[in-house]
Amino acid sequence: MAEYDNLCKILAEKYPRDFTRWLLNQEPRTIEILKTELSIEPIRADSVTFLQTENRILHLEFQTTIKSQKPISLRMLDYYVRLTRKYQVPVTQVVIFLQETSNEIAFTEEYVSEVTTHRFRVIRMWEQDSALFLSNFALLPLAPLTRTDSAQALLSQVAEEIAKIPDIETRQNTAAYTEILAGLKFEKDFIRQLFREEIMQESVIYQDILHQGEQKEALKYTLRLVNRRFGEIDLLIIERLQVLSTEQLEGLG
Length: 253
Known about the structure:
Strand order of the largest sheet: 1-2-3-4-7
Number of strands: 7
Radius of gyration: 19 Å
Number of helices: 11
Largest sheet: 5 strands, mixed
Shape: globular
Oligomer: single chain
Structural class: alpha/beta
Strand content: 5-15%
Number of domains: 2
C-alpha cells in the first residue's frame, strides 16, 4: 500500500504550513522541506517527510500497514539521533496511522531498551475530529479517514467541500487525493458515485502517483535481485537506481 503513504508525503510537502499548524499548533515564520537523505532504507523514504521551521524539525511518517522489517519505534529513534546530530534543533516526531487497526503497534508511542527510552507522537486518523479536516482543503483528503458516526455521510460532506474549491486544478487534484485515500475505508463503487471518473483521469497528480507506485515496486524487485546476487551494496549505487524509470529497472532486472 505504498501509494497511500506516498500520497500523504506529497500532501505534506505540498502544504507544509497546514501540516505544521495541525501537528505543532503554531504558525511557522519560515518552513523548509528537508531531503530524506538521512534514510538508510531508501525504500522507506517514500513515506517520510522532514519539515524544518525556524526552531524545530517536524518528522512525519505515514503508515498504512503495520508490517515493517525494522520496528517503527526503533526507526523513530534512529531518525531522531541522526536529525539531532545533523541539525542540532528540537525534533518533533509524529507517526500517522491511516487505516484503522487494533494492533498494538498503532498504540505504541515509545521505544524501550535496557538503557534507552525514546518517545514520539502517534496519531490514529480514525480517532481524529473530522471538523478540522473538512475546513481546510489541504487536509481535506484525510477527512474520510477521520472519526464519524456515519462514514457515508462524511464522504458525501467531503465531496461537497471539494466541489466548493474555486480553482479547477486544485479541485481536480484534491478530488484525486481524496478518492485514493478514501479507498482505505470505502468500497470503490460508492466512491465513484461521489467523485466523477473524469476528474481522476484529468488529474496530473493522480497519474504521477500511479507511475510512482509502479516505479517503487520495480525498484524493490531490482534491489532484491541485486542484494541476492552481490550482497549489501553501497548507498550511492542505491541512489542511482532510485532515479531510473520503471522500464529501465525492469531491463536491469
